Amino acid sequence: MADSHDPILPGGTLGILGGGQLGRMLALAARSLGYRVHVYSPEADSPAGQVADVEVVASYDDLDRVRGFARAVDVVTFEFENVPSATSHAAAEVARVRPDGDVLHVTQNRLREKAFLRDHGFPVTPFRRVASRADLAAAVNELGVAAVLKTAAFGYDGKGQQILAPGSDLDAAFDGLHGAEGIHESFVDFEKEISVVAARGVHGEFAAFPVFENAHAHHILDVTFAPAAIPADLAAEAASLAHGILDALDVVGLLTVEMFVTRYDRLVVNELAPRTHNSGHLTLDACVTSQFEQQVRAVCGLPLGSTALRQPAAMANILGDVWIAAGGTPHWTQALADPGLKLHLYGKAEARAGRKMGHLSATDRTVEEAVARVRQGRARLVRH
Ligand code: AMP
């Protein structure tokens, strides 16, 4: 369908492909702005479906259902980037899809994504495609063995990744790809990981949130704080990289750029996500506009909101592991004894290890105090 720049005003209907927590918080933001929300989810009673006007439960491969879903809404957006391209194309036949299928196509595959970034002059670590044992041997020969071998598609939270080092068994590493296409990336000796969540509107207008600094545990985001503890010129450079990337991809909507800060204060782009991001959850309680409201504004063609941070802020993820450690229901009242702490739960019935169930956030006079509050609050969830 030909795209139109006419705004979709409150009262219109937003369609979200994907039913997870990002879709849930997006749906809540859209409803708060006065939109109707339809969610397309492969599973019933999804976190997003629970708070939507309509939940369509069907497979992404059921293109007739996808077209029917898209026909009933004014614009389709995503909360999950691994929606098959055929699905976004089917939706695009009958509705505006933002960001469009090309953005999805580039960001669904690490090889395409890194090649796009490199070809447009953005800093990425050297990489090679690995489709055979010979490819891996050649990659190690050219780039060295200090590397991360990842599957090119459908990877997140460190799934499908292996760190290579001198002495690594390359055959075993190749077998670990289980026949999937791989990417060999030179290891980045980074000092910290940061992310920039940014939005671009229908007329190319741009707004980035302050830079977030991220700490991971077992490959999963653990704690985020803002502003990142980096020099102001580096933060400006990170925002400017994000601006260039959203322009180059012609994004209408929101996109997250994950970056490494190297030991020499250089920025290297690691990954793009064409959607809101776990690291941006603190915007709900700490910024004038949340990342979710910003996505709604961008895809509906409304003016973008202020991304200003009201106070230093922090967010701690609550994984299913907390239920396991608490031996059942976490001690919510004990955690919320700190009146400044905000609890967000995603409505997931089953708590499994590594599963993102919710998060805590707090603002304070300093980043250190905000981080201490969310960490202490989370510790109280499991303490008897
Ligand atoms: P990803 O799935 O690409 O976001 O990677 C998950 C995590 O693995 C990152 O957050 C980093 O901590 C680590 N990692 C990924 N790629 C590299 C790399 N090329 N060099 C060093 N660490 C990496």
Blueprint of the fold:
Layout: E1 13-17, H1 21-32, E2 36-41, E3 54-57, H2 63-71, E4 75-78, H3 85-94, E5 96-97, H4 101-107, H5 110-119, E6 127-130, H6 133-143, E7 147-151, E8 161-164, H7 170-175, E9 182-186, E10 190-200, E11 206-208, E12 212-217, E13 220-226, H8 232-249, E14 253-262, E15 267-273, H9 283-286, H10 291-300, E16 313-319, H11 321-326, H12 332-335, E17 342-345, E18 356-363, H13 367-380
Parallel strand pairs: 1-2, 1-4, 2-3, 4-5
Antiparallel strand pairs: 6-9, 7-8, 7-9, 10-11, 10-12, 10-14, 12-13, 13-16, 14-15, 16-18, 17-18
Helix pairs in contact: 1-10, 2-3
Bound molecules: adenosine monophosphate.
Describe the structure.
The protein is α+β, with helices and mostly antiparallel strands. The protein has three domains: 13-97, Rossmann fold (3-Layer(aba) Sandwich); 126-186, 2-Layer Sandwich (Dna Ligase, domain 1), CATH 3.30.1490.20; 190-380, ATP-grasp fold, B domain (D-amino Acid Aminotransferase, Chain A, domain 1, 2-Layer Sandwich). The chain is built from 13 helices and 18 strands. It has helices at 21-32, 63-71, 85-94, 101-107, 110-119, 133-143, 170-175, 232-249, 283-286, 291-300, 321-326, 332-335, 367-380, and strands at 13-17, 36-41, 54-57, 75-78, 96-97, 127-130, 147-151, 161-164, 182-186, 190-200, 206-208, 212-217, 220-226, 253-262, 267-273, 313-319, 342-345, 356-363. Strands 10, 11, 12, 13, 14, 15, 16, 17 and 18 form a nine-stranded antiparallel sheet that branches. A five-stranded parallel sheet has the order 3-2-1-4-5, with helices on both faces. Strand 10 (190-200) and strand 11 (206-208) form a beta hairpin. The longest helix is centred in the middle third of the chain and has 18 residues, at 232-249. The model has no long low-confidence stretch (mean pLDDT 96). Bound molecules: adenosine monophosphate. Residues 125, 148, 155, 158, 185, 187-188, 193, 216, 219, 258, 270-271 line the site of adenosine monophosphate.
